[in-house]
Every structure is written in C-alpha cells, then in structure tokens.
Amino acid sequence: MTQTYDLILRGGTVVLPWGMEATEVGVRAGRIAAIGDLRLATAAEVIDCTGLHVLPGLIDSHVHLREPGDPAVETIETGTRAAVLGGITTVFDMPNTNPSITNREKLDWKRDFVAGRAWTDIGFYVGAAKSNIAELAALEAEPNVCGVKVFAGSSTGDLLVEDDASLEAVMRSGRRRISYHSEDEYRLQARKGAYTTGMPHRMHAEWRDVECAFLGTRRLMAIARKTGRPAHILHVSTAEELAYLKDYRDVCTVEVLLNHLTQTDEAYDRLGGYAVMNPPIRDARHMAAAWEAVANGTVDSIGSDHAPHSRASKEKPWPECGAGLTGVQTLVPVMLDHVSAGRLSLPRLVDLLNAGPARVFGLVGKGRLAAGYDADFTLVDMKKTRSIEESWIASPCGWTPFAGHRCTGWPVMTIIRGQAVMREDAVLGAPIGTPARFAP
Ligand SMILES: O=C1C[C@@H](C(=O)O)NC(=O)N1
C-alpha cells in the first residue's frame, strides 16, 4: 500500500541523533511520521532539500522578548519573527519584562497573549523574587513553563534574589528547571563606587570581573550540593567557573552564549555600548575555555541571550548604557560559521541547540529528529556565504553586534510542526506558534 504524507523532505543530508545520513523525512499531522527511503510514498508537498542539511528545529533557550515592556524595542511578534528568519523554531522567553512575570496572573496573561502573535513555539520563564518563593513550586510545575529564572546578581529589570537563605529557599522549591544568572551581588555593589560615568566601555568587564562570576557560581554550587537540587547555570563566561563546574556535574547543567564564543574584549573598542552585556564579554583566554568546555562536554546548551535595548540606550555613556545584545536572529548563522571553521561539528551544534535544551528543561515532543516528534526543522545551506546586515534584523531596535560578520553556512528554511514559516528571508503564512510543553 502506498504511504501518504503531508510533507516529504527529500534529497538532503539529515542530522539524526546518531549522525548524518542522506535520507528522507515524512511528516503527517505536524509530526515526524517516517525517516528512510520514501521514494514510493506520495505527499501533498515535497520539499527539495538537495544540497541542504536538514536539522531538527533549533531552540534558542535564552531570549528576552520584552513584552510587556517596550514595543519600540521588541515584541513577541517581532522577536519570534526574528527567530524564524534566523532558523529558530522554539524560544524560551525570559521574565524580566516590565512588569516582570512573577505570578500566575501575569503568566496566564502572557500565555493567552502569544496566540496569533508568536511565529515560533514558546516556553515561558517565571521570575523568582523574594516575595514569590512560596508560589514558585506551583509555577514551575505549569506545563508551559520552561523554568524559573533567578537573578542572583542584578541586571536589567527588577528581579533579584541574592542572599544565601533566599537562594536556598528558591532552590528547594524547584525540581529541575531553575536557571540562574550567576554573578555575586555583594561584590557587584561593593565595587560599583569605583567607577564613574564616561569611563571606557571595557570597564564593564573590570567591574563585573572574573571573581564576581566565580563567587556567584561557587555560592550556587554550595547550595546545590547542600539541597541536592540541580541548578542550570546560565551564560557561564569564565575559564575559572568552567573548570570548577566540571566537579559539580551531578548538580548542574551549563549554558554558554553565542557572544562569549565569538567576541573578545576588543569588541569594546569597536562597538562601544553595543558590546556591553551581563556577564561581560571577556578576553581570549575565557573564549578559549568556553570552546574547550563545548568540546569536552561540560556545556549542555548554547543560547543567544537575545536582549534588545534601544539605540538611544546603547549610545549612552558607560555605565548608564543598557546591558544586553540582540542575538536570536544571528545565533544560527554565526554558529554555522563556527562549524564551517571547524570549531565544532554540525551534530554537536544540533546537540547544543536542540537535544541539549530539550534534555535540560524537559521539553516535550521536541529535541530529536525521530518518528513521533514534532516536525520542526531548520534547513541550512552550509555552502552559502553571506554577511549579516542590520537591514535584515527584524527586531525594531534595529541593530546587531554582528553587523558585517561574514558567515559560511546559513539557515534557508524554517519549518514548524510541518508548516514552512520562513523560506529564503520571506516569513510565510501567519504566526502559528503555540506554548511549548514541559515535563512536570
Ligand atoms: O542578564 C542579562 C539581562 C539582559 C537584559 O537586558 O534583559 N541583558 C544582559 O546582558 N544580561
């Protein structure tokens, strides 16, 4: 009997969990139905993937879509539009909005709000505050909540939980999905007075220094050992933390960022405020350690920490300029360029941008190119060379720290649950993104 599918991806090299294979993928009702030789099958639509690699839909597990907040900078619609243009099929949205997402009412608002506005599927972070610790366990268990975000060091927004007792209470409230911004707030505040307006932007990395990050992470690991609860340490940025965390793999998972893998402190001279983020871009020794950690398995996921700020804010003198860089649209092209340069393999990249975040956060129905999983795909052309231009950036803030960055390897098509939502720079159809689901 002839098998029929809604969609067949034909002629590409498919990145499967066990490696790359020239094979075909059949999709039915939004899910992967078959992988193999489908020449005898029929389909409503066949996409010719000749010359392309077929990747499972890539996940950016660290984005700030800023809604509610400042639509002139970013919205759920524009940020997820940027994501699909950059080959991303699912994003996890951070809670440090204005106001922050810290209770059920605000979470429910956001979950309802994304319908008809999100181009990607979307997981929701809930923010920890000293006032909502008792509610966190219930919020973390919500099926569309990817996790709880804890700012143990202050950054953009009003969320902060910095003392040991509160951090321990937060950690005890969660089962698996608590993520930490790890910088030591006491050291941050103690050193603040030494810096004055108008100092060079590179002072950002001196203020928020290696010890600041290391002390934050050491504090969290001590609490994780004491409580036996796991901690996802976001944007680990120093060689010292990465070496230390190797001995804590039983209680931690680790994220590194695109920027820390790609930019060093020379960026402050070139980009000024457009290089300022928390934790900061550091010198080449730390970048080398981040790559070593990608290679030796210490790293579980890579995120962009897409954090738009207005040009007016970025052009203020340091330290008043906003801290945070756009990245959801450039994550895949820049990482593909790293693949082309031989810094990691395509299957390892897929592990870090698909299987890894799915494993860390307990994402349901995604995280594997296998039968039964959602038919989310990122089609990439590894031969395509193209420069990132600001005119391509969909976020209303309109800038990228990678302007002019030349990439070999580019996402040419984004497919979500069997529907093409981006092809060659064109966003297609309507925003079909739905709340992602997470294991309790
Ligand atoms: O922790 C953060 C927050 C983010 C933002 O702007 O929201 N920007 C950053 O650079 N780091």
TrEMBL record:
The keyword Zinc does not apply. Residues 54-421 form the Amidohydrolase-related domain. It comes from the Bacteria. InterPro entries: Amidohydro-rel (IPR006680), DHOase/Allantoinase_Hydrolase (IPR050138), Dihydroorotase_CS (IPR002195). GO terms for molecular function: dihydroorotase activity. The keyword Hydrolase applies. Keywords: Hydrolase. Its EC number is 3.5.2.3. This is Dihydroorotase. It comes from Falsiroseomonas oleicola.
